[in-house]
UniProtKB/TrEMBL annotation:
This is Diaminopimelate decarboxylase. Keywords: Amino-acid biosynthesis, Decarboxylase, Lyase, Lysine biosynthesis, Pyridoxal phosphate. Pfam families: Orn_Arg_deC_N, Orn_DAP_Arg_deC. The keyword Iron-sulfur does not apply. Pyridoxal 5'-phosphate binds at G218, Y356. Its cofactor is pyridoxal 5'-phosphate.
Length: 410
């Protein structure tokens, strides 16, 4: 989609607002499946936490993707979107046995990442197929907050605890049908991923009834022109060769699984905001927008980069701006960024706003969360309404406990 489309959406639906391009999501899905076209059985489970709007889940379902979920609520959203329980995998962390049992009763694939729950679940439900999440102790990812496969991570069962897993499986007689790992996000070094994959292959040899091996995801997408990204085609060629070889060794055609989230939706998303004020100080020119980290927290949380363009004046003379929000706390999206000249009232677009933007938004400062738009077949479709004041108060209980000060002192 182009700048005129985005400007028209901002004019029609207001700002701030999230916009997603279905064509880009589709092309990313096809790119990933194409990279592994020489594997007989490939299963892509879209990571719902990246962007959980029902319309997006329905789009993924129409493409043939399953869902990777981390909460019972994400499972319920998937089911509401029409996804079959058999196409959903549940990979929680630190949730109760009761939540896992409730999801299991829905017919969803369970993925367990700690010894305690594995033993409890296996003892009570030995016939339910279970996937095991392994921690390969491999450091990968673009930020410590999203690197989840290292030795100090809370995620997964350590590879050094394989004997404990085998003891639990033998004692309970439970059915292990999958092995899983996830090393982190923004992975660039293919060799590191392949090294972790070898650990997973070695682990898989201990289990004789596997249906699938799930390699997680974490592929890096470009955030600006000339940015580096995971070479999916090279990775696909190398892992395909190794996976097919392992299947022959294992004696069974296993399913090759991935859980892409950001890779599928990040580049499809735009976040549009209006410039409220241009403020010149002694050293900086600030462009203050009608949003803040309540709508896009990634730059503050992960120090992530989002390309920002002035779609109201895309060809104007470039100047240096610091883009800041309206939150009563420091919320700087970009510092001294070269952007086409900005005037008050202009609309700026943040790129790569499809993943972990709306899904991590909040009502901080009692601000409303924006609407969401799906750009599909060259038309804008409203897929979530802009919040109102009623949304802020609908779950609050107005308790009659306190009298006004003047009444209390009479």
């Amino acid at each position: 989609m182009n700048n005129s489309n985005l400007l028209a959406i901002a004019k029609e639906f207001g700002s701030p607002i999230y916009v997603y391009d279905s064509e880009k999501i589709t092309s990313q899905y096809q790119r990933l499946t194409s990279a592994f076209k020489k594997v007989k059985h490939v299963k892509l489970n879209y990571a719902v936490k990246a962007l959980s709007n029902l319309a997006i889940l329905k789009l993924m379902n129409s493409l043939g993707a399953g869902l990777d979920t981390v909460s019972i609520q994400e499972v319920q959203l998937g089911l509401l979107a029409g996804v079959s329980p058999s196409n959903i995998i549940f990979t929680p962390n630190g949730v109760s046995l009761e939540e896992i049992e409730e999801v299991s009763a829905m017919g969803v694939q369970i993925n367990i990442d700690n010894l305690s729950i594995l033993e409890q679940f296996g003892t009570k439900h030995p016939n339910v197929p279970v996937c095991i999440r392994i921690n390969p102790h491999v450091m990968a990812g673009g930020n410590s907050n999203i690197s989840v496969g290292h030795i100090d991570s809370k995620f997964g069962i350590s590879i050094h605890q394989i004997p404990h897993i085998l003891r639990i499986v033998e004692n309970t007689g439970m059915n292990i049908n999958g092995i899983h790992m996830h090393t982190g996000s923004d992975i660039l070094d293919i060799d590191v991923f392949l090294y972790a994959s070898e650990i997973l292959f070695d682990t898989a040899k201990h289990f004789k009834n596997l249906d699938f091996i799930d390699f997680g995801s974490g592929f890096k997408v470009p955030y600006k022109e000339g940015d580096i990204e995971t070479n999916i085609e090279e990775f696909g060629e190398k892992l395909t060769k190794r996976f097919n070889s392992f299947c022959k060794e294992y004696g069974k055609e296993l399913i090759l699984g991935f859980e892409p989230g950001k890779f599928l939706v990040s580049e499809a998303g735009y976040f549009l905001a209006q410039v409220n004020v241009v403020k010149q100080t002694t050293s900086t020119v600030f462009a203050g927008i009608d949003s803040g980290f309540n709508h896009l927290i990634r730059p503050m949380l992960y120090n992530s980069y989002h390309d920002i363009i002035n779609i109201s004046n895309p060809n104007g003379r470039e100047r240096f701006y610091s883009i800041v929000g309206y939150i009563c706390e420091t919320d700087t999206f970009a510092t001294n960024r070269r952007i086409s000249e900005i005037t008050e009232g202009d609309i700026v677009a943040f790129k790569n706003a499809g993943a972990y933007c709306y899904s991590m938004s909040s009502n901080y400062n009692s601000r409303y969360r924006p609407a969401e738009i799906l750009w599909h077949n060259n038309e804008a479709h409203l897929i979530r309404k802009h919040e109102t004041f009623d949304d802020l108060t609908k779950n609050q209980v107005d308790v009659d406990l306190f009298a006004p000060l003047e009444a209390a002192t009479k």
